[in-house]
Amino acid sequence: MAYQALYRVWRPQEFDDVVGQQHVTKTLQNALVQEKISHAYLFSGPRGTGKTSAAKILAKAVNCEHAPVREPCNKCTICKGITDGSIPDVIELDAASNNGVDEIRDIRDKVKYAPNEGRYKVYIVDEVHMLSTGAFNALLKTLEEPPKHVIFILATTEPHKIPLTIISRCQRFDFKRITSHDIVGRMMHIADHSEVEYDEKAMHVIARAAEGGMRDALSLFDQAISFSQERVSLEDALTVTGSIGQDRLTALIKSLHGQDVAGALETIEALLQQGKDPIRLTEDLILYSRDLLLYNTAPHLEESMERVVSDSEFKQLADDIQAEQLYSYIDILNKTQQEMKFTNHARTYLEVAVIKLCHTEQKAQPVQTENMPDLQALIQRVQQLEGELKQLKQDGVNVSAQPEASAAPAKKSSRGSKDFKAPAGRIKEVLKNATKNDITQIKNRWGDMLDSMNRQQLRSLTALLNEAEPVAASEDAFVLKFKYEIHCKMAMENGKLLESMPVILQELTGSRYSIVGVPEEQWLEIREDFIQHQGQSEDSEGEGKPKEDPFIEEARKLVGEELLDIQD
């Protein structure tokens, strides 16, 4: 029989085998026992976290001959048939290759037929975000009200690409990245049953390289088994994953801390000669520095370390390096890693970063040694000036006048610190063409827009809008008032926010609006100026007609006649 990869042989057949997703499996098990099965599910999360496996287990559980059960028995005819794919009641589709309207219409036509052997006909659609817009529209009504014998399970790695109309018709379960601890435990279980000898440190290296994916971890473990002779050693795992051993990273950090530029560059040269990737090496240095900082500030959180095992050499290094130095390491290395993504000379950037780190330490170190005499002299000078000041007070000299005079310019400079100027002309244009329907439409869907941004993993952008509200709108633009000027400046300079917000509003309202941001103080000034000029223009055209108060006229435009109550 042909050899099968480990991730296929050890694919989960029960909910208990799905690693690190207890929040999902427990909910599904309770629903199965209580017979509260939904007609549609959405499984979203990173690759290799168990989405499709959980879908097949759920399909077996609902069709098991012993249902209702928490786990499929995997012994009855139906469970065995679903496992080997011989029962036609469970249909698996790859939306990447079946993303057209015709394929979805074919599903829509066939769902009305009863299942052949099981209680339910289950459609598992993998990578559902690849469906075209027409295919989603064709699926919409069937997904909302399918026959009682049909269950849809949609799986995706990019839920933000799925229309909200589809998401709202499904029970959504978010699969998270599996922790290194859980991955190591599962691999050790598989290795013990497969009679494979291994070094536990090698398992940790593979788990870190998998980045939260169980399938990736088993693929790397399979590769390490093939690479090794009789036992999967730490060196085998480092070679297969392209990672760097902890001893080499410790030597490199020691060189940086000791300001040994030549030694640090020689270590990097040796690692690159072994085929190590500069970007991956930079990432390992960031994680190692992070673990040093964690141990330096909270030693009791050793289980949270991602890159190292805390041995005596690591502990000694953590005691020697100050937290401020580690902040500098992480900051410089993080900027270097970002720059590496847009260059063909990643090695050069890494070498420059190492030299910069060493030079940074050379500047910081003399503060504690050579400058100590200067500090003592400074203290003496301050004491001398205090004595002279005391003498001046005794002589009757007003010593408080000069500080007040010097403080005045500073206050004036701080008052002029505003650096955001709202586009008054554009705001007045919106006010001139403002309609009640447009502002009402935007305000009614404002909460839905913020929820949509949160679901699309734009929470950092939503935070800027917590103190903002739309105050006026025309057919193609609306004025967004911010309580704080800094929030307005950050929002109006954020290209992602200016690009995503009109798109989401268009999906919710059917109209596309551009955004004009304004701080609250500037909004009040611009609105008052607009009302005054509006009143003057009406006077020049009215030729003696009695003119209504401009505030009342503006209120009538914004809220309508029926909601306006004028009291003297």
Give an overview of the whole structure.
By secondary structure, the protein is of the alpha/beta class. The chain has four domains: 169 residues, P-loop containing nucleotide triphosphate hydrolases (Rossmann fold); 62 residues, Helicase, Ruva Protein, domain 3 (Orthogonal Bundle), CATH 1.10.8.60; 120 residues, Zinc Finger, Delta Prime, domain 3 (Up-down Bundle), CATH 1.20.272.10; 136 residues, DnaA, N-terminal domain (GMP Synthetase, Chain A, domain 3, 2-Layer Sandwich), CATH 3.30.300.180. Helix content is 58%, strand content 9%. It contains 27 helices and ten strands. The chain has a five-stranded parallel β-sheet with strand order 2-3-4-1-5, with helices on one face. Strands 8-9-10 form a three-stranded mixed β-sheet, with helices on both faces. Helix 6 links the parallel strand 3 and strand 4. Helix 3 runs antiparallel to helix 4 and helix 8 packs across helix 9. The longest helix has 23 residues. It is flat and about 95 Å long. The termini are far apart.
